[in-house]
Amino acid sequence: MDPITFGMVFVGVTGATLGGIALLDGAGFKINDTALTLFMEVAKYGSILYLLKVVSRIFL
After folding, report:
1. pLDDT truncated to tens, each residue of the chain (60 aa)?
2. Is the CB of residue 14 less than 8 Å from the CB of residue 40?
3. Residue 26, CA distances (Å) to 14, 16, 32 in order
4. Quick check: is 54 in a domain?
5. How far is CA 19 from CA 4, 25, 38, in A?
6. Would residue 1 count as lying in a domain?
7. Is residue 6 part of a domain?
8. The domain containing residue 55 runs over which residues?
9. Residue 45 to residues 12, 26, 35, 37, 39: CA-CA distances in angstroms?
């Protein structure tokens, strides 16, 4: 998967997930903010590492 497609998919999935969480929060479900923040940070750093791996192939 090229970096541009990966970025578009990642942004779309993240936005849909946050939208779903906002709907659940509005419906009265208890959302653990700490777990949500931790998950989003891990996903962000994982995607950055994947992107760096793909980009490093260009220069090798």
Report:
1. 677 787 888 888 888 988 988 898 899 989 888 988 888 899 889 888 988 888 888 887
2. yes
3. 18, 15, 14
4. yes
5. 23, 10, 17
6. no
7. no
8. 30-60
9. 17, 28, 15, 12, 10
